[in-house]
Design goal:
Elements lengths: L1 E7 L2 E8 L2 E4 H4 L8 H5 L1 H8 L7 E3 L4 E2 L9 E5 L3 H6 L9 E5 L4 E3 L4 E3 L6 E2 L2 E7 L15 E9 L1 E2 H4 L15 E3 L2 E3 L12 E6 L2 E7 L7 H11 L7 E3 L22 E6 L3 E9 H10 L1
Protein name: 2-keto-4-pentenoate hydratase/2-oxohepta-3-ene-1,7-dioic acid hydratase in catechol pathway
Keywords: Metal-binding
GO molecular function: isomerase activity; metal ion binding
């Protein structure tokens, strides 16, 4: 199944996507709600509503404004340094334990929404990433069982403000500016992609300029290994989000000059078999002005 959470004139709903058309699952069964949490928590509901799709009315996907797949995720855990060539371009040693950090809810936004370059920095960078949504929670999850805990996969742009990321050994400031982490719009269930979403082309672009191009098969820590590692120290819960790190080609490592995102550009992150997360870049002062006038 391919899901899309989004807004129409009728409100926010969950849609099932088939090609260029989408069926409103919330209209078929109100229990589905306005994000994926009901389907995550009740596999029987997901099966029930899926059986009602054939013959149901549809709308063009293009008529839907994406919203966050999970409106209020409990925990957002991000994996850094998960592609060898990205580690080398950043000047780091290859670690023997994954570099993990967290994002707050104000730092994330939906695909299609403005990705905001903050007033205090012009070093806004892009990071194409695979993201998974936890379906079944748990603690001390074994690697062998880990993929059973995945509800689905989506696309993430881990927008990073590099000079703030490097102010300390902790990356938190540079990874948590408001409206810098774009998620979605499509969430695919595990049966739609190879096991662990491995072997998928992953790319970031601005227009015809290819910024990053790699494959999720190049990740050092797989989805299953990452879930097992994280669940050693914390209980994962349904709807938690885990980002799987970025491949080489990020802006700060471009030679001879860094390649920062600038207002007026549109950055696309695409993962084969999942979809494209596309966001316009705006300046913070313009974003605030637009919000004030809305």
């Amino acid at each position: 199944m391919k899901y899309l959470v989004g807004n129409t004139k009728s409100g926010t709903a969950v849609f099932a996507v088939k090609g260029d058309e989408a069926v409103n699952l919330t209209a078929l069964d109100a229990a589905v709600g306005s994000d994926l949490m009901a389907l995550i928590g009740d596999p029987a509901l997901a099966e029930s509503v899926a059986a009602k799709i054939d013959g149901a009315p549809s709308v063009p996907v293009a008529s839907i404004t994406p919203a966050l797949p999970v409106a209020k995720p409990g925990t957002i855990i991000c994996l850094g340094l998960n592609y060898t060539d990205h580690i080398k371009e950043g000047g780091y040693d290859i670690p023997d334990y994954p570099a993990l950090f967290m994002r707050g809810k104000n730092s994330i936004m939906a695909a299609g929404a403005p990705l905001v370059r903050p007033t205090c920095s012009d070093q806004l960078d892009y990071e194409a990433e695979l993201m998974l949504i936890v379906g079944k929670g748990g603690r001390h999850i074994s690697e062998a069982d880990a993929l059973d805990h995945v509800f689905g996969y989506t696309v993430f742009n881990d927008g990073s403000v590099r000079n703030y990321q490097r102010k300390t050994h902790q990356w938190t400031p540079g990874k948590n500016f408001d409206d810098t982490g774009a998620i979605g719009p499509i969430v695919v269930t595990p049966d739609e992609v190879p096991e662990g979403a491995a072997g998928l082309k992953i790319e970031s672009r601005v227009g015809t300029e290819i910024l990053q191009s790699s494959n999720t098969g190049n990740m050092i820590w797989s989805v299953a290994q990452t879930i097992a590692t994280i669940s050693e120290y914390t209980t994962l819960e349904p709807g938690d989000l885990i980002a799987m790190g970025t491949p080489p080609g990020v802006g700060h490592a471009k030679k001879p000059n860094p390649r920062w995102l600038v207002p007026g550009e549109v950055v696309d992150v695409e993962i084969e078999g999942i979809g494209i997360c596309s966001n316009p870049i705006v300046d913070e002062k313009d974003h605030k002005a637009a919000g004030a006038s809305a």
